[in-house]
Design a protein that fits this description.
The chain is built from five helices and two strands. It is 62% helix and 7% strand. The two termini are 17 Å apart. 21% of the residues are buried. Helix 3 crosses helix 4. The protein is globular. The chain has a two-stranded antiparallel sheet. It has one domain: Arc Repressor Mutant, subunit A (Orthogonal Bundle), CATH 1.10.10.10.
Length: 84
């Protein structure tokens, strides 16, 4: 968990994305909500996937993939809230 927290401390975008994933969203939707480029969102989601903080619930699709928080991601968000 501490490695993930260190990663998130370095990535404001990753934290913003995690906080927005309270329901399934696409990279395009996240980009619009956070005023970020879709490519930046996609790159960050890839890193979050590697760390198992998010899950893709439509992996078979090439477009309009939807992402949600994993259980690990939910725990990390709670830990971040406690630290503030």
């Amino acid at each position: 968990m501490w490695e993930d927290l260190a990663f998130l401390k370095q990535s404001k975008t990753a934290v913003q994305i995690l906080k927005k994933l309270n329901s399934p969203k696409t990279p395009t939707e996240l980009g619009k909500e956070l005023n970020l480029h879709q490519q930046s969102v996609s790159n960050t989601l890839s890193k979050l996937l590697e760390r198992k903080l998010v899950m893709c619930i439509t992996p078979e699709r090439h477009n309009y993939r939807h992402y949600v928080l994993s259980e690990k991601g939910k725990k990390i968000i709670e830990k971040i809230k406690q630290m503030k």
